[in-house]
Design brief:
single chain, alpha/beta, Aspartate Aminotransferase, domain 2, Aspartate Aminotransferase, domain 1, 2 domains, 7-stranded mixed β-sheet, 4-stranded antiparallel β-sheet, 13 helices, globular
């Protein structure tokens, strides 16, 4: 049986977290003289901003619990999901001793966080279909392998990882299995957050940066057992999500109808753009996508990337990633932006053909 006590860094078990003013007093009062705030107001233009925010984002968690079908105590809120990634590494990995397991090509912050904390990295590349190979992953795991990071839909490839393989990995892995679902809203596949009760070592990451269109507000979520969430709250900074973000996010979470409308447009545009890609001779391969971007393989990614820049179009060159030679990652934009992209690709194709 998995037990977080067996893999947490031992000194953190007895850690006494910082106790903020808002931890020690909850409720309503007429005069607040406990947190050394500026009671005259705020130069930011709103009197609310002179007060510290709710350190545990209770209002947002209540709304997310209903929206995601989980309990409030199963939710951690962070300054982007990158904060949750950093805290998870910090929670269970001893610097200079432990390691994490990555499946490239994948999201780069897992490696960055491990490097920041002097944590070792083992890598098992995805196969030619960008799917995990269970046997190779099992061979790499040791008693020092504390976290397996899975990205599904995967970044930069866009595909969902096969659920049967993911489940097998969660069941067999001795440490935390972190499934990063930043792009889950763009697919019909169910979230792994619906299965938290089955797997005590499962952590699911999501974000409001993608489908919800709030990248600038920096709010990410981790879903896990109440015990893991409690430990993350124990080691996080006391006020890690600011007042403005909490207010705007709380209001946005009431607008699920508008979210569905935006998702419908993006998914329709993804289909249209991918169909157009398939018809262009310069694009050698269009990879399947369950995200709001498409990975394509072209004869010369560097040359096409530079050409698109000249036309005012910025995409992401992923050619240096394992298995992604001459690949560009292209975000699905507005219909007008997508038209400009497609026109640029057609112009480039015509230019290459006439050479």
């Amino acid at each position: 049986m998995f037990s977080i006590e067996k893999i947490i860094r031992p000194h953190l078990l007895g850690l006494k977290p910082y106790s903020s003013a808002r931890d020690e007093f909850e409720g309503e009062a007429s005069v607040y003289l406990d947190a050394n705030e500026n009671n005259l107001g705020s130069l930011a233009g709103g009197v609310d901003y002179n007060r510290y925010p709710d350190p545990y984002q209770k209002t947002i968690k209540e709304k997310l619990a209903k929206l995601k079908g989980v309990k409030s105590e199963q939710i951690f809120i962070g300054n982007g999901s990158d904060e949750a990634i950093d805290l998870l590494v910090r929670l269970v990995c001893e610097p200079g001793q432990d390691e994490v397991l990555l499946l490239p090509p994948t999201y780069g912050m897992y490696e960055v966080s491990a490097n920041i904390h002097n944590v070792g990295i083992q890598r098992v590349p995805l196969d030619s279909r960008f799917q995990p190979v269970f046997e190779k992953i099992a061979e790499k795991q040791t008693e020092r392998t504390k976290i397996l990071f899975l990205c599904s839909p995967n970044n930069p490839t866009g595909n969902i990882l096969e659920p049967a393989t993911v489940e097998k990995l969660i069941q067999s892995f001795n440490g935390l299995v972190v499934v990063d679902e930043a792009y889950i809203d763009f697919t019909v596949s169910p979230s792994w957050s619906t299965r938290l009760e089955e797997f005590p070592n499962l952590v699911v990451l999501q974000t409001l940066s993608k489908a919800w269109g709030m990248a600038g507000l920096r709010l990410g979520m981790a879903f896990a057992s109440p015990q893991i969430i409690s430990l993350l709250n124990k080691i996080k900074p006391p006020y890690n999500v600011n007042v403005v973000t909490q207010e705007l996010v709380s209001n946005a979470l009431d607008k699920t109808a508008q979210l569905h409308d935006m998702l419908e447009v993006i998914v329709q545009e993804r289909t249209r753009v991918m169909d157009q890609f398939e018809s262009l001779s310069l694009i050698e391969k269009v990879y399947p996508s369950d995200a709001n971007f498409v990975l394509v393989q072209v004869p010369n990614a560097n040359e096409l990337y530079a050409y698109l820049l000249e036309r005012g179009v910025v995409v992401r060159n992923r050619s240096t990633q394992p298995g992604c030679a001459n690949c560009l990652r292209i975000t699905i934009g507005t219909p007008e932006e997508n038209d400009h992209l497609l026109d640029s690709l057609k112009a480039y194709s015509a230019q290459v053909t006439t050479k």
